[in-house]
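Budget justification note: compute hours in this period were largely spent on complex prediction jobs such as the one shown. Inputs:
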Amino acid sequence: MTALTMPGRPAHDARLRPVPWRRMAWVTWRQHRAALGGVAAFLSAFAVYLWLTGLQMHHAEAAYCHPAGSLGCAINFTGRYGETAIIVSIALQAVPALIGVFAGAPVLARELETGTFRYAWTQGIGRLRWTVGKLVPLAVAVTAVAGAFTVLIAWYNQPWVAAGYVTPFSARVFDLLGVAFGAWTLAAFAIGVLAGMLIRRAVPAIAASLAAYAGLAFATALWLREHYITPLVTHNPNLPGSAWIISHWYTGRNGKPLSQAAISQILQAYHPATNKIGPNTFQTFLNAVGYLTQHGYTFWASYQPGSRFWPFQWIEGGWLLALSVLLIAATVWLVRRRAA
Amino acid sequence: MYSDQHLRVSDAEREAVCGRLAEHFAAGRLDQAEFDDRVGRAMSAKTRADLRGLFADLSETGAPAVPELPRGGGGTPGDGPRGPGSPIEFRLDAASGVPTYLQLVHQVEHALRLGYLTLGDQLPKVRDVVASLAINPNTVLKAYKELETKGLTAGRPGQGTFIQATLGQVALPELAGLHKSLLGWLTTADAAGLDEDGIVALFASALRDFYKRRSGTGERRAARSGEAEGVA
Amino acid sequence: MNVNIIETSGLGKRYGSTWALRECSLAVPAGHVTALVGPNGAGKTTLLNLAVGLAEPTAGTVTVLGGLASGSPAALDGIAFVAQDTPLYKNLSAADMLHLTRNLNRRFDQPYAKARLGELGIPLNRRAGKLSGGQQAQLALTLALARRPRLLVLDEPVAMLDPLARHDFMALVMTAAADDGVSVLLSSHVLAELERVADYLILLSRGRVQVAGEVDDLIASHRVLTGPAAEADRYTERPLVHARRADAQAHLLVRATADDPVPPRWEAHPVGLEELAMAYLREPGAGALPGPACGRDTHPTEVTK
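Corresponding output:
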């Protein structure tokens, strides 16, 4: 009983040409253009806001804050825009997380959740090319957009640096500037992508990624960053504003450090006329140091000089990049191995 | 019987009628003038009644008075352009218990008997049968091969499968005689107490035995092509 | 052209501590429509996933299209898979899905796909999620067939479709088989409609292959013998697959051909595919595999009153 004969197929190349990358590029674009569009819209709205308020702040700073520290500056610049600036910089901290995670986590999680991977991974292109062809362009796009946004953030922040209210090193703004912002966005994307592959559902993956990112960001800001390069140590309490003072302590005559409680006790005996909280608490601080030094205690401070800002940026950008590459590679490896 | 007298006819139907008129002319039942006249009336006919009227004095055995609209297989019944398609369309009785390929074979034989198919007609293309019935193409191939083995059809490569023999027709008087003797037997069986199902079962069993004895195994019936009787 | 479209040897797949598929050895010839049948949880989806490269075997091997490793680029190229619930990107239109599939494959017959969708009346610009279930299934099938595969794999393709949609779906599959000689492997747990569609049967039960062979051979090699219940136990002439008995009468499904002698007072009938499959499903110990017959030593029966 004869079965149907196999048809004459067009001459079949024994070495199969791989499907070209640019075809995958269209696929990535078509499937994720909504997400990319959302990111663009979100950032555009934010950018408009930064542009408008930034203009005002630049204007005020130029008009009132030369010299810095004057009363006019305090009223018309710091007082009027200070709270807003703080809120904005906190909000900006969330931006890399939001962009990266919302762009990254659904890429694989949605496919696994809806079962469309059974379609995507059985197409001729193969699951490896498909995955790489999605993750790499998206990563680059997200990072590039974030990088461009950093320029705007730096401009927005500039009056505050000029007026001496914030140093680029401070935790509030360090990761919004330079390459750090882009690198954090990339890291958020990579975390999201891996979480999506592991958790296989979009919403839990987003939640888990945000949590992981937050943990990493806090750990870096509070502990890791200060150790990139061994801090310098000095006895001089009067450090330039650009420096990042990590900590200060006192040692007694015997060389042993004093606890904060002991310091407070000693200072209680000290009642200078200027020892009250005034507009310049730095002066109060200097007075206290002077008093303690006179009484035989030594002041120590560890700090990072302002000149180290860019090295720190490169270090942070570098390890975040390495981490991102590692996470994305792990995701690709998982895709390769994962059973249905 | 013919309640469709008033229905309009298509060009296809007119042309088919002309073809049959030509056969009658070739057989000598019409002379040239009558033939021309009737062809002219056929081409200007409007309704089925008009066309039928052309054959009122011509005897036609087997084929219906108005040719059935040939249908290409695979479309919804009644639709579809007339083309070089098959005159018949298959149907499938999924619940009958009869294997699919046998149903197709029987339907071809039945169509031959009733005159829906004649010598030279094409059987529906495999692809069309498959598309309209959603059955395995190998099943259709099997049915067509069976028909070919029986001598009823022949495949022309690249064109399709065509009827090359008709089933033997038993003459009318003989049929009447057989019918009468069968009625006699049925009366006896009924008197013996068999009901309808019992009669059918008995008949089926006797039929099987008959063909087993006659041909050794299987139930092949020879097709008569007018030249020789083939015995399986 | 004696290529085996799927060949497995001792194939097994374990999830955690459960073996979803075990000791599966098959050689399915090309040019057939193969039905993969079995109750839920028998391992059908697992076998299909292994064949199309979505899963890796825990034991044994599986090759496709005449010796290619499953999941390899050549295999992916020649096999089109439509998974259960016909996955499509719900927010893409049919036209987008065409474009997508064209970009993801080396070979794509766009005119064929457009023509089929036009025939089926599926609007090109509507989002896939807004199409009816039958239309989605047809779209997924059209995309698969437009890739001009050598093997089409369908996982319970018609489970969610109404009868008309089912018919149209299978008509499209059968037409592709007729036109292009595409081999088809489809899984189903509905036996009734398989008889007119399948010409090769694989029956899985509890992760093992119970029956595998051409439908014609299987039907030709099985008969139901009906006779007195009292003699049923003494019947040993041919291997018994499944017996059903009441007080006076018994039906024995045996592995016998039409030529085998029938004991006196017994009647022999041919078996339909559904009845055959049901009988094997009821007798997990029985098997009908190409090669040495898997017989059974005991005669478990189903008693009907």
